[in-house]
Amino acid sequence: MVHAKPDTPRTPPAPPPQDFSDPKTAVAHLIALYDEAITFLCDAFKSAMSPQGPKDRVRAFYPEIRLTTVSFSKVDSRLSFGHLSEPGTYATTITRPHLFRNYLEQQIDLLMTNHEVPVTIQVSQTPIPLHFAVANDEGLSVPLQGAAHFTLRDYFDVPDLAGTHDDIVNGTFSPAEDQPGPLAPFTAQRIDYSLARLTHYTATDPGHFQNHVLFTNYQFYVAEFEAYARQMLADPQSGYDSFVGPGNAVITDADAALPETQKLPQMPSYHLTRGDGGGISLVNIGVGPSNAKTATDHIAVLRPHAWIMVGHCAGLRNTQSLGDFVLAHAYLREDGVLDADLPAWVPIPALAEIQIALENAVASVTELSGYDLKRIMRTGTVASFDNRNWELREHTGPVQRLSQSRAVALDMESATIAANGFRFRVPYGTLLCVSDKPLHGELKLPGMASDFYKTQVSRHLMIGIRAMETLRQMPLERIHSRKLRSFDETAFL
If you write DSSP's letter for every residue of 250-304 in order, what string do you get? Predict the structure, then answer.
């Protein structure tokens, strides 16, 4: 059946813009506008998939927050966010306001307090792609190209990658003269794109992710994380209320069985949750800078308060032993995957808040302090390569550069995670554990590291957890410091 492509799309009624001076009612209106748009698109899609086919072209739009200020008066800038850098009109499109309710209320409240102006909530001019609309309904899915009995693009908007980019966070976005400045680091379509990718790669819904994210490059850590989660669920005073695994398997009882996933995703994630989102997520990103970039590209849109790498590394100094810890205070970036977005000449500073939390956690778990702590932990530069077999290269190449950089450890993920944390304004840190010393004859071979795995994984993971629990108690203005903010920042965190 051939369907004629209609010229003018049918849209849901668009209420006039409304001003709000209360953040909760403003977000409630965002939710109402978004829900109406999604329901409209889903109903139209169901009708289009019937034997009768689509009747007309349809379109719905993301809601938008808009704010205008005309004053140059200085605001309380102790916070690195929540205020505009100069007078003007600023706007951002919004998606999934249910998921981001607390974040939106907090950011809007800060703007109202600092600038003493209302925010305007209205329907934007950015269409919602059908693929992102039906993601809200588990019973719907968009068929592959050619599988439907009509041409999808003739009747619905589809994702537009031309407008889905990182220009705002990369600092390269320049609005047209008659367009508002960006209010938030990500647009609605960029967020929707990442939420869809995140579900695909981790096999858990974005709503399960917590504000504190641990990355690892080995599955060994998962069993330890689950064991710790069960201990917390058994303790009614812990503050944790559930443990979530791939496939959105949820347990709230410490003794409950966690359903096994038939096929693990590329980057399985596990979540020890709290009602306020202040729990801990663990993501096994596997090996390589590409995976590290992929995971952090998408988790960043959830605006976590911290992410930390707790993985294995090659120790580069003869004085190190298997099982020693390395606290990164600088990064040698030879991963290559972020060079187009964040040039290698950009320094990636260590963040004092994260460094102190990690060092204190090491001292607490190992019961060592001061000079004794130096026996098992080295602070220094961590190098990240994109070549797993770098040892086979001519030693006047990578080995010489490693020596010149004063690097103490090498892996394939940490610099990528730190650099993307810097790029996305997400506080970051790295605590690695030495699992081999290839320059000194201790290679990662079968059986060679078995004792290390048995004794060190549990302790290493616990250090990461303790650090995150410390950071959870930290005020937002302290953890989200100005060190991660550029000259002209978005008001939203």
Answer: EE-STT---PPPSS--SS-EEEEE-TTS-SEEEEE--SSHHHHHHHHHHHGGG--
